[in-house]
## 1
Amino acid sequence: MREWKAMRGISKVYRQSRKARISRPTAALAVAGLALATVSACGSGSANTGAALSAPVNPFGATASPMPSSASGGNCNVNASSVSPSTQVANQSDVNAIKKRGYLIVGVAADQYLTGYLASGDVEEGFDIDLAHAIAKSLLGNADAVHFVVVSTAARITDLQDENHPLDMVIDTMTITCERLAEVDFSAVYYDAQQRLLVEKGSGYTSLADLGGKNVCAQTGSTSIAEIQQADTNPKPRAIQVTDITDCLALLEENQVSAISTDDTILAGLAQQDPSLEVVGPRLAAEPYGVAMPLGETDLEAYVNGVLAQYEADGGWTASYDHWFEPSLGAGSPPLAQYSD
Amino acid sequence: MAWQQSSTATPSVRSARLDTPTRLWLLLATAVAAVLTVGLITGFSLAGRESTASRTAQSTEALYTEVQNLSYDLADANATAATALLSGPETSSQVSSRYNADITGAEDLLAAASQRVAGDAYDSAELKFVAEQIPEYTGYIGQALAENRLGAPVAGAYLRQASQLLTGSLLVETGDVVSAQQSATTGGVDSASSFPLWIILFGLLGFIALRIVAHRVSRISRRRMNFGLFAAAIAVIGLLGWSLFAFGGAGITAGSANTDFTGISQAQKEISDISLAETYTALQQIDRGEDQGLEAGDAKNALDAAKPASSEAQSSGGAALATAQAAYTAFDACMVKAINLAADGEYQTAVDATVGTGGCDAGDATALHSDLLDIFDRSQTHFEQEMTSLGGLYAGSGALPVSVVIGVLGALAAAYGVNRRLAEYR
């Protein structure tokens, strides 16, 4: 019964099984491997004709399709993929364009507590937001000369590539990967995040190896999906993907998933909303965050790396970390700067 | 001698005369049976149609309306909760009252509909499932409001879960019942006005039978006219005429009733679509881009669906429709502006445009809802009048007794008429 309840919330297949008048546990077992198909069927299977409301069904969660490993994979060094800082770029074209405009346009998240979150009063705040303000201050002399544009996790790269979507950069807990390096440029690593797990206190789960056959939630489009699917355990955990990371928290609170896997920075934000949860386990994968910029804007990349080096050296980084993450993740220090040249 | 002569001829003549009463008895029975049959068939047909009209108006359409209103209450509860999350951490008493009224209303309607639907296994199961899910739904909303009070972003996740349960299941279940009852209502109206051809068939057969009886009686009695049989024929013609008049009028009335019902259906659906548009708009602002523009699209689709259809003028009048369309134009413009602001990442401005002072939710939505409710009320009143009129054409609940009385009177007249001739042989 409990398994049925769990499956119901995830894939919403219960309607089909109810129509077939089969028992709930049987229905849950029968559909467990078909969650994706049934989710799509949920959206179109009900004949709402005539005066019946034809409200679309947006699935709350679904089993993720197998994904290739992407985090830090490939033949590249994600920790040293960016050009070194240079003082000669301050007047080059891309940097100049921003100076001429008078404000920086940064793509950020609006829903990630502690990293990028639109708080009441229309104020963006979080660790990533502090970094954006630091770049604006260095570039334009005014920390507030920054225009935040909310971008979704799955659309960050396409938004950055879109010429009609004039983003100077994206600062949104974005992991540097070899695949992404082929599509956008990244700054040096500004935060060395670790993919970890959020579980209920006292659950006994400390790693993905403890979660074989269990549902583990992650955000659609994130590198966590592949990590869950390729966990070194048999049976493997089931990756449940959601569009919004807070959906994972709701599913965990309802016992529909056993853990949430994502970057520790995001997990810290979730843990802060529910004191019965804790961030556990060893790092599942390195998640080096970088500031993403359009491909080929090397002068801007070098400039941002310069700001980063300064930000880390003058204590700005540490102050921001302590404010946002220290209570949940303990003390931290900036990553060691490495460059490609 | 003459007597004897007469007696001599008696065997063959008597034989013929002995046959005549029997033949007259048979003719009498035929005439009585024909008139009674026409009376009974007409009576049962008219009563059946009247019963269908009555059941359609008082039960099927009423169930349809209840389940539609149930859908609306649930959709409005969701929209209310969604806008509550937009408005800030504290839920105002006004919002709480509206949400509670919606849920209480939904539960009352569900109870009423469940009683009315008893006997229909499928629809009963649908409503039972809705009843099972409402506590789950309110649980999600309660959790969302509690988390929102604490300022936790997970409030949005619980609202999304509730919305998913609403759109993915609750509205689908009620939609199934609505579709079934909509078909049953239009089918019922059509059925209540469909002309039963067998009335013509049996009426003509009855008339022909009476004509043959009258002809035979005329030959036997050597009288051209039999007033009893003539009266019986008048009764049959009267029954046929009444049927033709009733069904002719019923066809016209049913057409009007179906037009009114279309107005009812459209207005109710549009009222619910307002709530869905509000819900998706709020979710778009709560999700802050993570929905990939999905909710903006859903909100615009719901907005389009909420546009008052021009056909509603037929059931509610042009003035009511014009008022609703003007309100819709204002509501649509306000909502599209909010949707576009959110799509551009201007969330706080979008929130202000939606739930702020003078926002879409406060004025325009309320005005449009009120105008559509007016259309619904007018259409519903017209529908009920048409259905009452439809039943009236069949003499209401008196269709069967009136037809039977006419049939019996016609049969008595026929019997009287033939019996007068029989008396000549006694």
Note: Chain A has a mean pLDDT of 80.
## 2
Amino acid sequence: MRLVTAIIKPFKLDEVKEALEAFGITGMTVSEASGYGRQRGHSEVYRGAEYTVDFVPKVRVEVVVDDVDSAAVVTVILKAAQTGRIGDGKIWTVPIEDVARVRTGEHGPDAL
Amino acid sequence: MKFIDSGDTAWVLASAALVLLMTPGVAFFYGGMVRAKSVLNMMMMSFGAMATIGVVWVLWGYSEAFGQSWHGLVGNPFQHFGLSNLLSGNNAIFGFVPAAGGAAAHGGIPALAFVAFQAVFAIITVALISGAIADRAKFSTWMVFTVVWATLVYFPVANWVFAFNGYAADKGGWIANNLKAIDFAGGTAVHINAGAAALALALVLGKRIGFGKDDMRPHNLTLVMLGAALLWFGWFGFNAGSALGANNTASVTWVNTMAATAAACLGWLATERVRDGHATSLGAASGIVAGLVAITPACSAVTPLGAVAIGLLAGGVCALAVGLKFRFGYDDSLDVVGVHLVGGIVGTLSIGFFASASAPAAVDGLFYGGGVDQLWRQAVAAGAVLLYSFTMAGLIGLALHKTMGFRIDRDAEVAGIDLEEHAETSYDLGSLGGGGLTHAGAALFGSHPTASAPSPAKSNTQGASA
């Protein structure tokens, strides 16, 4: 099994969620995040003063999937989240040893 | 013929209550502008001023401001100490606006109604200063400062500006009676006074950590808007109440207060829109306050059209003035200098230009054919109050800084002054309890372990066993 983590633009969340649902993913965890990549932050003018905003608001989507689905899920998120402009985000995957469903005590792929 | 006019008295007492509401208004206005970790301290500085000045006013404050004046500089602080000798109804006070004349033809108000009305002026003037030292001032030192500054600066200056001869005492202050500058409700005594003191304290305390680098945006603009609304509402008591009667002067000043404030809101928003591309809610709130400040000295001296002109001017000038702190590097955190000092100067000087003899003060300014006579009187009054307040506030601030310390330490400032000085946090939004992020942040910086705070459970047990 693999954990797919996607950092995306906040306004892309709905599209990513719908695309994952259409693909057959049954659950995900979403959290607000902030950070920067190669685009760095940006400067803003407020009340006549210029500020550098280092950390740009993002949304983090986490999905645990079967090994065979991993590459396809990354592609699904990629397509849904892409605008082609800087700051679109990142997706990475890591292997995970085990998953347990709290309600039933099932382990492994059965718990997904 | 001396009698108490019930209508005038009712208006002045109601106005006093309106003006008292302005200080919580300042607390909300300032409280919304700081970051989430210092809201309570910001609001407590205003409430603290209500507490200290409310007591000091009764003891020697009123007497020092409105007792028999010593050379027009300061009232006798012992004459009405404790106010006990003013309780009989025989101490009626008559007509306030000297140039309007004719005031003595009708009744007066009880001395204690005047005491009440002027008390809330003293409170708000002190509270206004706190905006310059947000996030970093020791609360105990602030409380001492309020008493010392009011005693050495506000009460004497109120005597200069507000004490007319033969009014509350035979002999009043030099600006009101000798210089004859027009300051109807306190452009000099309240706003230039507070703004100059704010500048001095901002210099004494130094910049906040991260000033000019970190984004220090207001944490809650709805509170700022609420504060501005309370200020505008209360300000009708401030200005129209200063007529000290339910009369024509009160009506003219009421309309001028509305007109100038609305125009200043427009002026500020237009300036922002052109310069930064957005009309912000903080700009609207600040514009409202700038207009209120500027019309305060002038509301009895100008026509409603003059008030609109002063408002537009104040809104535009103050919107530009709030940027000065970044250019000169002083951390006037919430723009007390840019709004109250600059707005107070704009209003006080504009009387010299826009005053019209058709208004209750009955003086013509430069634009109405009155020449520069009134203008130089206004400039002298503004300059005198500015220099005196700045110098004294700087000396008092430095003395307290060297003895008690005026600034909290670095770690506490980063973690948040609310927790350090008051052991509270303003927002407990986390569902896991324990004060949420602010506590976590404080624990992270290690300056204020939550474990050392008295636990509510413990004190309950003590209460039960006692």
Note: Chain B has a mean pLDDT of 90.
## 3
Amino acid sequence: MMKKSLLMVSVMLTLAFAIGGCATKGDLNEVQAREMAISAKADQAAQDAEAAKAAADEALLKANEAAARAEAAERRAEERERIAAEKERIAEEKARQAEAIFQKSMKK
Amino acid sequence: MLSMCILLFNGCAATRDILERLPFPGLASDRIETNYFLVHQGDDVLGQLGGIKLKKGDTLPDIARHFSLGINTIHAANPGIDVWVPRAGEHIVLPLSFILPEAPRKGIVINLAAMRLFYFKKDGNLLAVSTFPVGIGTEERPTPMGRMYITRKKLRPTWYVPASIAADHRKRGDPLPATVPPGPLNPLGEYALYLSKPGYLVHGTNKPASVGLRATNGCIRLYPEDIKRLFDTTLVKTPVKIVNQPYLVGRRDGVVYLEAHAPFEVSDSTALKKAYAKLKRIQNSTGLALDWHKVKKVVDEARGIPVPVSAIGSGGKTVEAQTTRVRHPDKLYGQPQVPEFRTDAWYVLAANFRDKVDARRLAAIINHQGPQIPARVLSMSGRHRVLAGPFHSNGEAGDAAKRMRIDLDIEGILVAPVEQRKTETGK
């Protein structure tokens, strides 16, 4: 009777150990899989971030270029305006001088 | 029938729409009154504004003369328009509306500020006025003001050169004879009315482009065609009153008008204060509400045009509505003509420009000298040469070159006829 009981206990313990051992391996696999997935995601995220940064850098570069072009265009427009105003001033000055000479010539 | 009516109606509406978009509404007229007006009881404002579209080759002095206006008024009424080289297609205002100066409506009244003469006469039971633009004395030799009268009339007068003018000319290297007989070189023109103030005349001119300028030695100058009309109708002993009123206030059809001219003395505000006082008196006595912002604008702009400054009632019209569109005449009266270019004639090269507008301006100024010196622009290889001529001889070309040097500070170069140049160079 005593032997039977001992056998039962040992069988139970073996089973328990066996069952317990199987659960730990599965967990390990799962953890490994999760780790791999996370790692893959992290890699992807890093790649995405890299791509996004590159895109952002490119956009910034383009924006800077556009701003520089706009500034240059503005400067050119201002220059054109200045030249036009100067031309107009010169034309008005010439007209005034011509008018003064004409008026002088109309005296007796 | 109905569809035709609809078409006709649409046509009218479309035409109306086009006309409303034009600067001066209404159909173009061939004629606008320039000199003769009836003065109705209680009215101080005469005539109406005109509007005209410029053609290529027009100058403001030519338009001014055709419509019996002075260069001063057409220039003031159209600020920003080039006097000598206006753009073809531009619309300009013809300031043919005037406020009578504050003076007895009798005989001749001359308003120096407006550079305009008014001659009042009876026309049946009505009072009529003939009005002409004038040229007046310079700042150094101003036209005297006050009451005087016509002492005598002279057809084809001789000019007895005053000592002061003779001295001026001598200094400029252009000595004058003691007397200048009638003819194209006589600055008095063909007709003269002598004023009771010794040494002062109302006369014609050999420089028509000077009408509307302060260019005389105190005399009053009129266009040759205007002095003829004045001379023919004016009697000896006609009273003459000369005033200087840059701000004119008047009424027509119950509307109050203000006309402002640039004053000769900017610092003298007496005339302006007087005009404001008159406007206030009118406002108080009639109850008419005056637009004082508009009053200030009219004074600041000084365009020489009567502008309504009281509320426009049923009898009054806006300035735009009062403007009559005038068709451009085929030929402008008195416009200088330039003879055909000839290779057998003498010329004077007046200037050589890169800018065609500069060249056209100088050519126009030379053309408007009195007597005329014909001038044209010859453009070649991006350069624009102003050539005065043609002249029959070396001497004639030399005289023109001398006049251009003295009057316009131009050092011209004499250009011999092509045939003569070929002979000289052996080509």
Note: Chain B touches chain A at residues 82-84, 135, 138, 165, 187, 207, 209-210, 213, 215-217, 357-358, 361-362, 365, 368-370, 407-409 (CB under 8 Å).
## 4
Amino acid sequence: MVVERAKILEKKTIYNLEELTPSGEQVRNLYPDLVKCQGCNTCTMSCSQDLNVMEYISYVLYGKIAEVADKSFDCMMCSHCADRCPAGLAPYHIALLCRRLYGRYFVPRSQHLVSRIDEIKEGKFDAELSELKKMEESELRRRYSERDIEP
Amino acid sequence: MYPPELKESLARIEITREKRLKEDYPRLTEEDKSALIRQHHPNFVDGGMREILVGPNKGNHAPDELAELLEGNSPVDPDAVDLESVDYNVDVLVLGGGGGGAAAALSAQENGAKVLLATKMRFIDSDTMEFQGGIQAADKPNDSPAIHYLDTIGGGGFANIPDLVEGMVCDAPSIIQWLESLGCMFDKEPDGTMCTEVGEGTSRKRVHTARDRLGSEIMRNLCDEVYNRGITVLEHSPALELIMDDKGQVAGAILINLETKKEVSLVRAKTVVLATGGDGQLHYQGSPSTDHYGATADGLVMAYRIGANLMLLDAVQYHPHGVIYPEQMIGQPVDEKVRRLGAKFANMKGEQFIYHLETQDLVTSAIIRECKNGFAMKTPKGLQGIWLDTPMIELLRGPGTIQRELPAMYMELSTFGIDITKEPILVYPSLYYCNGGIKIDAQGATSIPNLYAAGKVCGGVHGRNMLRDNILLDALVYGRRAGKAAAHRAEKTKLGNLTLEHIRKWQDELKKAGLEKRPISPKLVPDYAKHGKLMRADWHRRYRFELRKEEKQPRIQPVDIQEIEPILNKILDAKAPAVARARMLSGRGLSVDNKLDVMENVIGTKTCLGCGNCIDVCPVIGREPARRKRTEERSSMVLETILLGPEECDRCYSCVLACPQVDISIKQYVVNWRVVEVMPWLDSRISEAKEPDLYLFVEEALSR
């Protein structure tokens, strides 16, 4: 029988992104162990992506979510930092939470996406698409080679 | 750093660079083009493809290695499996843990199904994670799904299935919005407008990016969301075979524990979504591959065996320039952009052999031709490659262009000591994408009842030629659609008795076709006995040529206590010496300043000096001096490790006060709000002790 591997969940907090408030306080509440960081810098030394892990953890302590999102962007979730942390933290999960909060709440949502989705729902492009779908290959080829290309 | 045997060739490239810069290599004529492709392209040369001899796609062409697996025998003995003992009973089983699998699991759960996700490797390991391109979506005012449709179908050589393309282009904007709501950090203008770029074969600026790591940005968010929603994930558990019921529907799968390769578990599921990914690790004709380690066509094999229709298996796509040296990066593609920026190819003699902006298949064929003719360089592993002369970009467009335009490639190669602004890259065509796969309809359903598929395992969306920035879109759109359809289907499904009769039927079919002693498939892990050279070396065996570059930051600024008060309180409340953490909050000099690097950078930073003041003043150690003898080091780290037991710290904060590196305003705070409070407690503690602790400490200090 295959064993469920929930090792990753030992250090990860379960949350619902929709219910969170975007603040440093929120991150610290979800990961209260943050204060156990001893500043030993093992995480930075072990990072496979050459990130300065301890630096972004310091920014989490300060509650600067935008900085954390920026500094930790190249993280590949290899979990080396969490495996070696003497205080038992999982910096990569904390950084992911910050990036998600940043992407969800700090950056304004795209308005042109909303209007385009509405247009598609209203069926604005249906006629054009069904015409293209039925089109003969030769006609399609002509249209394809003659399409105007945005510089 | 390139090995010495390539130095001579490198020197020649240096000398001939000027000449190549001026030289205009002629474009190929139409006849030359078709001759070149017919003679050298891996899809057309003799011996690469053969007919499939058995099964629903009998007579179609497929690469040798894939055909061999499709005609393989099952690893499961139908008589040995006890179908009564079911380990998991779920509504929807998702096989595969990449972008398509995660999207399918999420959307199936949103539609009310109980979901189980099983994956061969770690849940995040996938091609999606490695993908560095972008994602197309027609959401700008000057763009429309119809234009996206035309671009896709034209790029695919008009062999795409129209319904699938329509579904993809219409869902694209809502997929982007969904990702946005999950917290993906797309590149945006300050007002929220998406930054979009021109991509391969697009006629509008439609490619959305997230720096140059869109794939991993999407995958880690999806993965996190799957865990947050409480979906059960089985890692290292590939499927060996699908289970059917007596009504001819798919009814689950047999999983194996990849770590022991013994334990088998049975999943009974009302519907199954296949998202097992591509087949790059089969290394057709010995070519390196851009795919990740798990891409061994498992899904194709399992689906084919129960009679699902496959399509376009012979449309294999090669990336013209994958890295061939260093070994850790074999097969990794260098972005097409590099040629658009002006890098040209050079063979052993330092000569051009093809116009650098020809299409992918022509460049692929030309590089293979040069290697066959003996004008290629040999790597220490015995692989062949051609120079892609990147320093030309800097000469043409000025210094700094490469770091700006190709940051990921620059960074990755520079960890191996190869500076691509000064040295060329050694490249060889790399297996990129097999356009073929399981035939699906617009809802992700295959020709077998209750079996759905999404992602690279499917065929038909991209026709015969995939546009790079559509791959991820395809996986997410059809992942979500298949998950939804599978969940709805599961509501209506009543399963019959489970059976493995299809395996016996398949074995009979093999016998009838005269195929005996077949290899076992699915393969699960790539065959590196055969392709040992192509195996990527361990990434962590890399050399570090430069010390980590420390960014210069403004040094010490006074700490604003108001700002850090909540966190400082938490730190001071903890039952552990607070000195190291108080130092971390000191002075804002966040990067080098807090390290426990005792030897380096002592002056003017918040580094631990190793002076040992914190150890000397600690009353706990004072009561029990033997503890200190465990170590001769005197850093604050030692204090933390000695006092690791529960509730050991007296919380006197003496260590914080004694540390020369903790910010003065933090010390003030500690005295004003903390020490005053605990003084009575300390007093009582001292009066309880037979001898006052302080004397012990002084005695110990004198004896040193």
Note: Confidence is low (pLDDT under 50) at residues 540-556, 588-605, 697-704 of chain B.
